[in-house]
Amino acid sequence: MAKLTHSDALSRWLLWGEWRAHRSQAAVAVAAIAIGVALGFAIHLINAAAFNEFSAAARSVSGQSDLQVRGAQATFDESLFPALAEYDGVELANPVLELDVAIPGNRDENKGATLKILGLDIFRASIMTPDLIGIPAEDKLFDILADDAIFLSPAAMEWLGVKLGDPLKLRVGTQAITLRVAGGLTRARAGQRIGVMDIGAAQWRFQRIGQLSRIELKLVPGIGHAAFKAALEQELELRGQFLVTEPADQETRVANMSRAYRVNLNMLAMVALFTGTFLVFSTQALSVVRRRHQFALLRVLGLTRRQLLGQILLEGGSLGIVGSLLGLALGYVAAATALHVFGGDLGSGFFSGVKPSVHFDPVVATFLFFLGLSTTLLGSAAPAWEAATAKPAPALKSGSEDAALSKLATSWPALVCLALAGVLTQLPPIFELPIFGYLAVVLLLIGGIALMPRLSALIFSAVFSAISKRTSRAMPLLALARLANAPNQASIALGGVLASFTLMVSMAIMVASFRVSVDDWLKHILPAQLYVKTATSGDTRGLTPDEMATLAATPGISRADFFRSSQLTLDPRRPSIALIARPIDVADPGNTLPMTGEVVAPALLPKDAIPIWVSEAMVDLYGYTPGTRVTLPLATPPPVFVVAGVWRDYGRQFGAIQMRLTDYQALSGDNKVNDAAVWLQEGVTPEQAIASMKRLPFGDALEFSEPSEIHASSLKFFDRSFAVTYLLEMVAIVIGLLGVAASFSAQALARGKEFGMLRHIGATRRQILAMLAVEGGLVTVLGIVLGFALGGCISLILVFIVNPQSFHWTMQLNLPWRGLLSVAFVLTASAALTALLSGRHAVSGNAIRAVREDW
Predict the structure, then answer these.
(1) Strand (E) or helix (H) holding 56
(2) Residue 562 — φ and ψ, nearest 5°?
(3) 35-44, 171-180, 708-717 — which is least confidently predicted?
């Protein structure tokens, strides 16, 4: 027992002594681990809260239904309802009309917003979805069937600024309607913004006579859902415009909407955690080298290899425990703050209309805690093994430090990592996620950093050889000689710069490439001088043919192209795709659309098929390659189309199809349009044209935007979406500088005898400090040069593999040279200054005291 007590006391003494003596190095390692864990935990909490709330809101709308029959388009003819209501095995069929209706922009916060309104058969819905039944005033019970009554959830009332009995102004196309707030939905979920009306009133008021959005089915108890669904699908297949789904399919659709975005953010957090792993490795490696004599003496006095190995792993694990716990706390606070300030979409726009709140997830917290602890143990493993296996006698001698570090750096594993990374870049995605692409990025980082000792020795040796022939100045040559002959110690500091700068370069190139590509894309798709749209209200909006003619004839307008946008569901487990009908020149679609490659010539188009042009996502998700013949549920029977080309679309991640407006109108019978692109006559300003269009009978229903406004708002949304990436870039730079500071501080203290010897042979303190500054600057410059190369390779993976496989779009490579060079200059100067300041304490002591111990 006494032996165990003494061993524990020694372990605690070594641990606390090391932490007290080198607080800055421990703090850097802890901060790096904490940042990685915090990012991962915050991202998970935000997305989990938003997804769970969004899914719960969707389930509350579906109620107790077992199956749902939906149209491929937003609405379908209600003639299907009587057949399903009498269908064998159906206990109850509930018709639903679901619309997103425009709110006139009387209040700035509501401008361009929509309110989800459900039209319900109150008597059937009271059984299927009782939580959606409005509660009227006691003396107005029949308001539940009134044609002007709407029942709002508490969140909708607060958002719209209305109360019981107030009028609510809405807009359908170019027409304004006014409804009366007849009651509330007291059982609606907190934060859920919805309104409920009688289905007949909703069809009439919103110009959807005879139309439904879905029919919810409750089956007779004992009926097998899978068999019933298969039989119903087979029967409806002949109609070609219906999908039979389960409530769980809606959750899958929601999960698929944000999955790529969530995974990419989590991968960024893991990269930050990996950087922390390397900093733990560098901290522990320097600690082992600095205390090499101490450990050797302890071994001579009886400490076993196993005890020494456990001691060093304990020190690294302590960093992991503190960093992980701190990261979990920071992540929770960050998630709560982000949900309160920005909502649950992290700038992505996926989960609007809900008010999520953060909930601590113990399972994920435990996983991230052990992940952070594992990374620190992994970073400590190699230094601990070297210290435990070192022979005491050689370790007691001075000058063995770089030899110890050489055992931690071998070239063949690095080359294997680089080769394997190259192989992984050629593999396809898994579950539509670039898993192999992410693994390739990690292997490139590991391989590149592991090669640093060999590369730094070769490079600094070559530089020393070249410089020594041209100058005889002692301090620069001493700095180069040390870097060339003790490359393993230099590589510790070099690796910190390399890891952080590589991460920053790769992220910067990826974001810049994406932003420039989006900028060029916006310029291509916004050729007109003015854009006009009716107030947003889903598929209920639109200009009639007469209104289109009136708008085109407005004084000052030379040309007006009209567009019709709607949603089309091809796969019930995927988000809907966008269907855009507009004027397109079949002979030259690139004049209108940003095409990505060759198009099918008009002479090669089949005469019995209608041409369509698809976005890149349609190729990846649905296999719509050029020349493919496909059917789309726009009519009965479904017409045949041919893919005439592929165009680039950064606005719709889940797929979009464009077709000629005349073809769409002939097939669907829908003659309304959503938007218009307007070209002005010479000498007419946008302000004058807007004033003329506002004087039209329906002018109040129009919204106007200039290309510059759309361009600016789109890039603002882009920057918000990549806010986490920008934050990670800044974190990488800070971590790199802290790593340099900790590394050079430790090395400067370990080199006290070397500095004392230089002082004995005539070197001044200023000269030694200058030598340290030169070493810091040279190491940083090499780290930056190699970081440019390694970061450039990683950016190629991000730009040409990860992004296309995640979001299904391609982009052009763009290098932000000015920003990167500016950061490189600041980082070099800061590192040199950091090395100089770190060495001041080491050279401030007495020269005789520094060299009096010689083992």
Answers:
(1) helix 23-62
(2) -110, 150
(3) 35-44
DSSP string for residues in 275-336:
HHHHHHHHHHHHHHHHTHHHHHHHHHTT--HHHHHHHHHHHHHHHHHHHHHHHHHHHHHHHH
- Distance, CA of 476 to CA of 399 (rounded, Å): 21
Q: By CB neighbour count within 10 A (0-12 exposed, 13-18 middle, 19+ buried), where does 224 fall?
A: exposed
Is the alpha carbon torsion for 481, 485, 489, 492 positive or negative? positive
Specify the pTM: 0.81
Cβ(99)–Cβ(537) under 8 Å? yes
Q: Which DSSP helix (H) or strand (E) runs through 36?
A: helix 23-62
State the average pLDDT for the chain. Answer: 81
Query: pLDDT band at 109, cuts 50/70/90?
Result: very low
CB atoms inside a 10 Å sphere around CB 274:
22
What b/e sequence results for 315-332 when a residue is b if at least 16 CB atoms lie within 10 Å of its CB, and e otherwise? bbbbbbbbbbbbbbebbb
Q: What is the DSSP letter of 430?
A: B
User: Hunting for tokens 């041409």 — which residue is that?
Assistant: 611
Task: Look at residue 845 and give its three-state secondary structure.
Answer: coil
pLDDT > 50? residue 616: yes
Least Cα distance to 577 among 589, 568, 588 occurs for 568
Q: Give how far Cα 693 sits from Cα of 109, 278, 281, 556, 701, Å.
A: 24, 62, 67, 10, 10
CA distances from 449 to 435, 439, 454, 757 (A): 22, 15, 10, 32
Number of Cβ atoms within 10 Å of the Cβ of 534: 25
- Residue 157 pLDDT: 92
Q: Which tokens go with 312?
A: 């060093």
CA–CA distance, 710 with 717 (Å, rounded to integer)? 11
Burial category of 526 from C-beta neighbours within 10 Å (exposed 0-12, middle 13-18, buried 19 and up): middle
Report how far residue 480's alpha carbon sits from residue 692's, in angstroms, rounded to the nearest whole number.
Answer: 74
Q: Nearest Cα to 651, choosing from 562, 577, 726?
A: 577
Amino acid at the residue 197: M
182 close to 149: Cβ distance less than 8 angstroms: yes
- C-alpha distance across the termini of the chain, in Å: 35
- The answer to whether 215 and 67 are in contact (CB under 8 A) is no
- Model pLDDT for residues 756-799, shown as the tens digit of each residue: 777 777 777 777 777 777 777 787 888 888 889 999 999 999 99
Map residue 671 onto helix, strand or coil.
Answer: coil
Residue (of 361, 249, 718, 296) closest to 521 by Cα position: 718
> What Cα–Cα distance (Å) separates residue 111 from each residue in 253, 351, 535?
28, 18, 9
**CA dist., res. 510 & res. 820, Å (int):** 13
Residue 263 has pLDDT above 80, yes or no: no
